[in-house]
């Protein structure tokens, strides 16, 4: 049974997981999907396929609004409505985790297709249900085709290496690692790694490294009594001003204000 919902979301939801395929159709700018190491920006004419049992949430900062059509599909229903080839296609796609496809400049047809998917939990009208399923099937096929073109069959070839690269970054966050170092160490060309790393994490190499540094710094501010300067240096930021800018860009607060907010919330 197909379940779908059109929503304008302004608040972050708790991280969760379920036994359903979740297919998000993004219809405007605002917010991001957080799933494992990936932080995927919500932008117009973008589809995001979240495999079952993937821990994730939609995250929004103050003032952000996400306009989404969210479609949830039980795995047991796929063979009823999709061809065997399409089921295999979706299964292969999901083995690499969350996937993203973009249709920039094609917002009109994207929105029109999205509107064909009727909101609700199933539908008594067989024609309406068929139209919804057919539209979802089309969008899934376009999503898979975009993945195929974007990765040049590389999803399975490079996932293990990308996982190792992310682990290597994690182990060396204090170091100013570069994508050139990563490419040399893991035997990939710089251009290929640039493309595949963004596809895997949703960010450039530097942005991902800095985001993880900021996230680790935030945890230190939560759990440790070190000064902001000590936290910055321990997190790999040698320039305090750069640390403040990166932290505020991510959390909307300076590190000091972030810590004060934590103290206020604890005292509330």
Q: How would you portray this structure in words?
A:
- By secondary structure, the protein is an alpha+beta fold.
- It has three domains: 149 residues, Regulatory protein AraC (Jelly Rolls), CATH 2.60.120; 48 residues; 61 residues, Orthogonal Bundle (Arc Repressor Mutant, subunit A).
- It is 52% helix and 16% strand.
- The protein contains eleven helices and nine strands.
- It has a six-stranded antiparallel beta sheet, with helices on one face.
- A hairpin with a 2-residue loop joins strand 3 and strand 4.
- 30% of the residues are buried.
- About 3% of the residues have low confidence.
Task: Explain the layout of strands and helices.
Elements (H helix, E strand, L loop, with lengths): L2 E7 L11 E6 L5 E4 L2 E4 L4 E5 L5 E4 L6 E8 L4 H4 L2 H12 L3 E4 L4 H10 L3 E2 L4 H26 L3 H17 L7 H8 L3 H12 L3 H19 L4 H7 L5 H12 L3 H13 L1
Antiparallel strand pairs: 1-7, 1-9, 2-5, 2-7, 3-4, 3-6, 5-8
Helix pairs in contact: 2-4, 5-7, 8-10
Key phrases:
three-stranded antiparallel β-sheet; globular; six-stranded antiparallel β-sheet; 268 residues; single chain; Arc Repressor Mutant, subunit A; 52% helix; alpha+beta
A few lines on this structure:
The chain is of the alpha+beta class. The protein has helices at residues 78-81, 84-95, 107-116, 126-151, 155-171, 179-186, 190-201, 205-223, 228-234, 240-251, 255-267; strands spanning 3-9, 21-26, 32-35, 38-41, 46-50, 56-59, 66-73, 99-102, 120-121. The strands form two sheets. Strands 8-5-2-7-1-9 form a six-stranded antiparallel β-sheet, covered by helices on one side. The protein has a three-stranded antiparallel β-sheet with strand order 4-3-6, with no helix packed on it.
